[in-house]
Design brief:
The chain is of the alpha+beta class and about 625 residues long. The protein has an eight-stranded mixed β-sheet, with no helix packed on it. Strands 21-22-23-25-24 form a five-stranded mixed β-sheet. A five-stranded mixed β-sheet has the order 30-29-28-32-33, with no helix packed on it. It binds zinc ion. Zinc ion binds next to helix 4 and helix 5.
Length: about 625
């Protein structure tokens, strides 16, 4: 071969190699790139016949499941939540093993000082347990093989489900509503007959991380979006409230009817309630023969329904809460984004309060004070559970924390006339965790925190402090804008922690990788100190492992004050501020010194106490 040909051949080989490299790079990049978002889709049609005497029900379920993932599925998984309420279930075992069991789920046979807990689940008799039994299941008309493993149904598909394809699952099932232990059950402490949460075989979520067929241990849910068409046959004396809009109000009455039209009630012992809910991730209902049902149509057009026990002890608070619920709804509409459904129901139904799609279960309510905070919290969940539906098992802090943050601002404004600024007083729970060694990384699965207190203070308080700390780091106006953009960009999706962080970065123009990592994935704490003060110079120290930008106020000997801001270099900028901006502080340098223009009288780090500094004793200096 002469050299020219060789060179040509080499060129050709190089070109081929280059093309191959480009193709490979494209494949690798697109495999690593998680921007092509997809989510599965469900459409349920259920017909349920409920026997109010023995708390049992039979149902058929047609589920059209759409595989929007790029994968072929060979299995699917359903949750059978009520199987948790059986002696020796995983929920029972965990309840008996955890050092600080939920007081609602145990009897204390000892004293307050010396408790001896007994699991209430362990004591359930056969006619008191909960269960969901699948009697038959078909894929596109053909019988399927399945096994029940505790609270999860494992299903092997006859024909693999290809990407982009739909499949129809037809199921016959029966269930028994347990004695009320947690969230769902019969005849709870307020004597509400039927609290029907997590009551049907429910398809587990499959997303970019794979299947989330977690067993029901204690808490938190994650559901697939879709439409629900539910017909419920139940004793005519019972009033039902829940997810969805009633399609046949004139055949039902019970406060749903158009009073100007004639009722068309059947003579049967059971009424046939037909509900439709569009684009929700769950379907929940409650029923009682003794509910009062009030309706309030808000100025913005949302129908608020209130269902509560028709007894004197509850009626005052449940009347007073109605206009306040509208105010809270308006607050969330304005500060996050518009409530998207036609209807929302506040239902006396469960212990404490629990959020569901288009409704909530609220316990008690003998005084407005007793329920107002809970109603505000549970309503706010609509935005961070039903609209921005994070994986609550993995990131309970996003759901509980963001909810706690916005509902405490709403409570502060509506109930106390406050200015709606985040308050440092809510940090005490977090400081308690840290000081007692209970703090765990917020990325811990909700069921697997060592203690209940680590889960609850972590998810609610430390979770809400993700946003209060952001107020400190990127500024209040940026956080306000972030919440709205988070809603706009991720509504009806499953946002991840990084999605929330990216929105904060986009509105502020600042980099926040370090903050997400430190606050959520570690138990590092913040502690800054004034280390040394001269006549005009100041040395600060980072004592804790977690870095932060620093706000600091110096009072000079002549009585004038100057605010300073020390940006953290990793942020690549600083929040909007009127303070004097000093040079960056890098993470690795434990100390930082700077000069001021006049003689110093006193110094205070973070004068507004927004930073979650665990030791404030070293935050101030006063010249003697
Ligand atoms: Zn909550």
């Amino acid at each position: 071969m002469d050299m020219v040909i060789l060179r040509k051949r080499n060129n050709l080989r190089m070109k081929k190699a280059l093309i191959l490299l480009i193709i490979l790079t494209t494949i690798i990049v697109s495999a690593q790139n998680n921007t092509t978002y997809w989510q599965q889709h469900v459409d349920y049609t259920m017909d349920i016949d409920f026997d109010v005497k023995n708390y049992q029900y039979k149902g058929t379920q047609k589920l059209i499941y759409t595989n929007n993932s790029p994968e072929t599925l060979h299995n699917v998984f359903y949750h059978l939540y009520y199987n948790a309420f059986q002696p020796n279930s995983e929920m029972d075992a965990r309840l008996q093993a955890i050092v600080d069991p939920d007081g609602r789920m145990v009897n204390n046979l000892g004293t307050n000082q010396n408790p001896k807990y007994e699991s209430r689940i362990a004591k359930l008799k056969l006619n008191e347990i909960g269960y969901l039994k699948v009697l038959s299941l078909k894929q596109n008309g053909e019988e399927l093989k399945y096994t029940t493993e505790g609270t999860v149904l494992e299903v092997k598909l006859n024909t693999p489900l290809q990407p982009g394809k739909k499949v129809t699952f037809d199921m016959i099932f029966e269930g028994q509503l347990p004695v009320h232990i947690r969230r769902a059950g019969r005849n709870n402490e307020d004597n509400v007959a039927l609290s029907m949460a997590q009551w049907y075989p429910k398809m587990a979520e499959y997303d970019f991380e794979g299947w989330h067929a977690h067993p029901y241990i204690a808490r938190e849910f994650f559901g697939v979006w879709g439409d629900f068409d539910v017909t419920l046959h139940i004793d005519r004396n019972y009033t039902v409230g829940g997810t969805g809009v009633l399609q046949n109000p004139q055949e039902i009455g019970h406060g749903y009817e158009d009073a100007s039209q004639k009722l068309k009630l059947s003579k049967e012992q059971k009424l046939n309630w037909h509900f439709v809910a569009e684009n929700v991730n769950d379907f929940t209902w409650a029923a009682d023969p003794n509910y009062t049902h009030d309706k309030l149509i808000t100025a913005s057009g949302t129908e608020l329904h209130f269902l509560y026990k028709n007894t004197e002890e509850y009626s005052k608070a449940w009347k007073e809460i109605q206009p306040l619920t509208e105010k809270a709804l308006n607050y969330y509409n304005e500060n996050i984004g518009k409530y998207p459904w036609k209807q929302y129901s506040v239902i006396q139904g469960g212990d404490g309060g629990m959020e569901y799609a288009m409704c909530t279960f609220i316990a008690g309510g003998k005084s407005l004070n007793e329920i107002a905070g809970t109603v505000f919290h549970e309503l706010a969940h609509t935005w961070f559970h039903t609209i921005l539906a994070t994986n609550e098992n993995k990131n309970s802090w996003m759901d509980e924390g963001f909810t706690e943050y916005i509902s405490s601002l709403a409570s502060n404004k509506i109930l106390k006339g406050g200015d709606g600024k985040p308050s440092s007083s809510s940090y005490s729970g977090y400081f308690y965790l840290v000081n007692n060694g209970f703090d765990e990384p917020l990325t811990t699965h909700a069921d697997r925190f060592n203690t209940n207190i680590a889960f609850s203070v972590g998810s609610y308080t430390k979770g809400s402090m993700f946003l209060t700390q952001l107020n400190y780091i990127i500024g209040e106006e940026n956080v306000k804008e972030m919440l709205k953009k988070y809603f706009t960009d991720f509504k009806f999706k499953h946002p991840t922690p990084n999605d929330a962080k990216r929105v904060a970065e986009k509105v502020s123009g600042l980099q926040l990788d370090w903050f997400l990592n430190e606050w959520i994935e570690t138990t590092h704490t913040i502690d800054y100190a004034i280390a040394k003060v001269g006549e005009r110079n100041i040395t600060l120290a980072r004592v804790g492992q977690m870095p932060m930008p620093i706000d600091l106020t110096v009072t000079y000997i002549d009585g004038t004050k100057e605010d300073f801001n020390i940006p953290l270099r990793m942020m690549r900028g600083n929040k909007p501020t009127t303070a004097t901006i000093l040079k960056d502080w890098t993470w690795a340098h434990p100390t930082y010194s700077f000069l001021v223009s006049k003689e110093i009288r006193s110094i205070v780090i973070d004068p507004l106490e927004m930073m979650a500094d665990i030791d404030k004793t070293n935050n101030t200096f006063q010249k003697e």
